[in-house]
Amino acid sequence: MATRSHGLQSWIDRLNNAELPALAAVVQDLHRLAQEEKASVQQLADVLLRDASLTSKVLRVGNSVYYNPSQESIRTISRAIVLIGFDNVRLIGLSVSLIDGLLTRAPREQLQELLARSFHAAVQARNIAGYVLSKHQEEVFIAALLYHLGALAFWGCGGEQADELASALAQPGVDADEAVREVLGTSFRQLTQGLVKSWNLGEIVTLAHNSASHNDPAVYAVSLGTRISEAALDGWDSPGVEALILQLADFIGISPEDALQQVLASADEAVKVAATFGASKLCRLIPSTDPELIRVQQEQRKARLLQADLLVLQQALQDLGLMVSKRGDIGLILDALFKGLHQGAGLERVMLAVLADEQSRFRVKRAVGEDTQRWLTDFVLPAEQREQPHIFSYVLRHREALWMGVPASYNLNELVTQPIRQCLGQGMFFIAPLLAGTRQIGVLYADSRVSGRALKHEQFVAFQRFTQLTGRCLEALSKR
Q1: pTM of the full predicted structure?
Q2: If you average pLDDT over residues 368-391, what whole number do you get?
Q3: Which of 185, 220, 229, 421 is least crowded, fewest Cβ atoms below 10 Å from its Cβ?
Q4: Bridge partner residues of 363 (DSSP)
């Protein structure tokens, strides 16, 4: 049986000494040359010439149409550096080393998917950096390429433990991070940071994993490129991509339409780069930008959109009406409320935030809709915040339902604070106090931001009606 590794240092020692010493040495040497002000052509050539296979592959990539459109023959490393540039040759050397060091060992599906995503992220990040940086674009490419270095190294060299993790991740409802910690004794993020430190990969690669450094434009370019490559796996029309396109447009100062075209062009370029580096098997794993395919995805998404159902709405109202007199339990009341608003009124995301912790803060009691389960843990608001009042405490204090995002409520927009926007996103929403008689229970929230559709008057009427009826049910329950 192969040696098992457990814990961060155990994996770093194994990868450095037994599995990837040659790759580590090449990556370190190529990175060191980037740090030296006057690194010579000969120094770079010497690093690459140590390995005949690496030399021939760098020359093949250097002769490709992508790097050498004039097709002037390149037969030596020094000639490649003169024709296509020191930084490009260094980047080619590092990329080819990574592909060779990992893909030729164990071309398992997880490794191929992650390498494809890494190349896609690298091209996206470098092209984003081109708008905001006068230099260091190649460093940004490398930082994004190596962003998931720990996971890449594990899937390439993990052996039986990689099989074990693959089986664990295939189980329904598994917590992926927990499964990784169970098998490795550390997280992929910690393993990446450990290897980056051990291989001395420098500032941009190191800072990319520090959220506090995202005001550095190079680091932010790496972050955006990485997140775009991940979100694109859900389709170019997904809410995740749409949100990132807006962030990108704001960051580089172009329109959202132009930002989308830039991102699609970078995805196409990533396919060419992967093929050029001899990793054509990765090309199929980079999301296609074929306009027809995107149109089909959009149509499929629209077909999946939640539609209002009048029968469900009426049944839920009837159920709540009966529970006012029959005093149904809290679970049945909330079931009818959420079913009526979500499936009945067609509101895509619905949330009940109740006063908790001795009424000192709002916590989410229940939520329904795409990507709302994280609210149960992530959404916490102080009940009263004198220095920064917010819309949740406002509606509870004033006891009124509001339709935010329409002219009548523009004067309250400043109450939608930055923490609320970060958690819930931007756009129209309904919000109302939930009261059991005079007792404050919490706040009901609903929106249709999954599709971005505008909310309708009849939905607001239903939202108010359900809130009132639920309050009466809760009041009846408290008098039991």
Answers
A1: 0.63
A2: 85
A3: 421
A4: 354, 380
